[in-house]
Amino acid sequence: MKESTEHQDILIRALLLFMAMLLMLPFPACAKPVERAPAVRVSAAPDSVYAGERVICMIRVQHSEGLLAALELPDSSVLAPFCLVGRNRSSSKPAPGLAEDRFELEFAVFGSGKQSIPQFALLFRDPEGHVTGRTHHRPQASVYVKTLTPSGMNELRPFKPPIQPEFPILLLMPFLLAAFALAGAVLLALFLVKRKVRLFAETVDPAQVAHRKLRKLGSRLSGGLAPVECYDQLSGIMREYLERHYHIRALEAVTQEIERDLRKLGVSSFDAIMTLLKQSDLVKFADSRPSLDESLKSIRQAEDLIGSGRDGGG
């Protein structure tokens, strides 16, 4: 009985030892997705610029799908001589289980010589927002900055005012010539028109013009025209006739000047003409009030004077 009990204890101990060994064996746990180490590539274009020009820096980050990458840049004092102008981000999935984030940074570059792209940090988060990693990067890409000032220049030159451009005379010559030609053509046209009008006026018989105007004046007088107005128009018709027929200044001259010029010419009807002109002056300036019959008589006298002057030739 005692041996049987000892035998059972041995079996129990062996069983416990076996179970303990089984527990110590490595059992495969729930398989976790294999995380890739982030791959970072940095490029800059163009690789040579003048001071103040723009450079596009492209940062490509490939990492495991499910992670979110964020780019962190230092402050402006560390970025110098680079000045951040703009930034853009895009994402893609180039392969199953792989994601790629592209950060496009636009810098304005200053200074001179070779300038390395500023350092940056990448922050990775899981879909729940927990930070899973943070890496710092110092890119090997660089940009060569050229200056507009020659390197051998070590002193400031005196300031010179800008040179004023010369007036483009040659460009304006066609327009000036066209303007002169147009002005000459206008003057020539005016001269020809004036000459034609003068020749036409010389060919018109002033006696015929005066007779036609006197007939119209007589008709208007019979139609109710006031004698005072009749004498005023009669004086104008006679003065126009005298000026064109005898070539003296009569329209703008006073009666005494007309009398002097006609006396010099020895006009045969001198007395009758002067009587008619002086009678018109009395009506106009001395408040003389002729009757209708006197006005008609004066018109007939003027017609006779003009007819005698044409027949006798002055």
What can you see in these coordinates?
- The protein has 314 residues and is of the alpha+beta class.
- Among the domains are: 39-146, Immunoglobulin-like; 205-312, Four Helix Bundle (Hemerythrin (Met), subunit A) (Up-down Bundle).
- It is 47% helix and 24% strand.
- It contains eight helices and ten strands.
- It has helices at 2-24, 76-79, 169-203, 206-222, 227-246, 255-265, 270-285, 292-312, and strands spanning 39-45, 48-50, 54-64, 68-72, 82-95, 98-109, 113-116, 120-125, 131-137, 142-146.
- A four-stranded antiparallel sheet has the order 1-3-6-5, with no helix packed on it. A three-stranded mixed sheet has the order 2-10-7, with no helix packed on it. Strands 4-8-9 form a three-stranded antiparallel sheet, with no helix packed on it.
- Helix 4 (206-222) runs antiparallel to helix 5 (227-246) and helix 4 packs antiparallel against helix 8 (292-312).
- It starts with a helix and ends with a helix.
Brief summary of the model shown:
The chain is α+β, with helices and mostly antiparallel strands. Among the domains are: 39-146, Immunoglobulin-like; 205-312, Four Helix Bundle (Hemerythrin (Met), subunit A) (Up-down Bundle).
Chart the SSEs and their pairings.
Layout: H1 2-24, E1 39-45, E2 48-50, E3 54-64, E4 68-72, H2 76-79, E5 82-95, E6 98-109, E7 113-116, E8 120-125, E9 131-137, E10 142-146, H3 169-203, H4 206-222, H5 227-246, H6 255-265, H7 270-285, H8 292-312
Parallel strand pairs: 2-10
Antiparallel strand pairs: 1-3, 3-6, 4-8, 5-6, 7-10, 8-9
Helix pairs in contact: 4-5, 4-8, 5-7, 5-8, 6-7
